[in-house]
Amino acid sequence: MVFENVLVVDPVDGEYAGIVEVTRGFISGVRRRAGCPDCELLLLPGFVDLHTHGSKGVDSLSMDEKGLKKWEEFLYSQGVTYFLPTTMSAQPESLISSAKVVERYLESNSLTSVGGIHYEGPYLSLRRKGAQNPSLIREIDLQEVDSTLNGTIKLLTMAPELRGFREAAALIQRRGITLSIGHTDASYDDMMKAYKYGCKRVTHFPNGMNTLHHRDPGCVGAVFSEDFSVEMIIDGVHSLPSFVKMVFRIKGSERIMIVTDTISAAGMDDGEYELGGLKVILKDGRPTLEDGTIAATVVLFSEAVRNFKTFTDCSHKDLARVSSYNALRSISIEDRGRIAPGYIADFVILDRELGIVETVLAGKTVYKK
């Protein structure tokens, strides 16, 4: 397979006119061209979403393998070539059940964009619960933590101010799982301690955490003070465009990761849905709990990418970082996320308006407009 007359966008080498060759699912060659006046298409690493609870009526806590397949195929239309189904706070048996679905799915599908699973909770702050079910949020139980972890867990979100966090962090990281800070009322000092423990990633920043004050820097101040990497929901609601632009100016494209945080209502009509045992009302494309609390999103990944470009006026190279490369590196995936020889051939091909034209997974076209 050969891709010609494209503007190659690599997160390290930047953008240039080129020809990309693929052999047996891997990039076998990349050649630059002197110029490409007819290059109407951009070729970027496939998009990566490490925080999504569902789409097209499928929810991570109730899905079966058929539902997961439906979810995966829908995300291909959004340019996503790697994602982590993400749970909400739940009882141990529910978390294990979802992890087992992913485990069986990976065993029976050699070609898939499903990378594993992300546990968001249940060891979170009640005060900063957001749309998490308060009846399922609880203190850290090391034995329970240990019992819910298996080989499919790639990412786990936890509040660092909870008693037992340091021991839990050590246990989780020994298993090769990335720990992320989220739904937290941590102090500035709590955040700094977590950073020293190796927890350098933040879930859907700055949502679900305390805010910045000049005499109490809190979570937001800690994130700006240290080299934390941050997920961001780029829907213009969870963070206004001006805030996204500010974070981009402070953190740069090297430490931002676009996520959607979508629920099962994504790609669906307005109506009533469920999230972590709570009723969600989707009206005019905005999901909320019955009390009006924002309940995750229905923004699609391709929309989020276009939003980020509009909000920040970033380069295409920056887009390749925030939409793929950074997220993969945050969970220690080293063989994807670049347009360079030897990397897995996961691509998204976009038009000049950043609309999805084609999605390629390991050298195979899985979506074409």
Key terms:
369 residues; alpha/beta; Urease, subunit C, domain 1; TIM Barrel; 2 domains; seven-stranded mixed sheet; five-stranded parallel sheet; 9 helices; 20 strands
Describe the structure.
The chain is of the alpha/beta class. It folds into 2 domains: 1-46 and 337-369, Urease, subunit C, domain 1; 47-334, Alpha-Beta Barrel (TIM Barrel). The chain contains 9 helices and 20 strands. The chain has helices at 65-76, 92-108, 142-148, 165-174, 188-196, 218-225, 241-251, 301-312, 316-330, and strands spanning 2-10, 14-23, 26-32, 41-45, 47-52, 54-55, 58-59, 80-87, 117-120, 153-158, 178-181, 201-202, 229-233, 256-259, 271-275, 278-283, 286-289, 347-350, 356-361, 364-368. A hairpin with a 2-residue loop joins strand 2 (14-23) and strand 3. The protein is globular.
Q: What is the mean pLDDT?
A: 96
Count of the separate structural domains? 2
Oligomer: single chain
Anisotropy-based shape: globular
Q: What share of residues are in beta strands?
A: 25-35%
Overall CATH class of the largest domain: Alpha Beta
Assigned CATH superfamily of the largest domain: Metal-dependent hydrolases
Query: By helix and strand content, what is the structural category?
Result: alpha/beta
Rg from Cα:
20 Å
CATH architecture of the largest domain: Alpha-Beta Barrel
Give helix and strand order, one letter per element, not per position. EEEEEEEHEHEHEHEHEHEHEEEEHHEEE
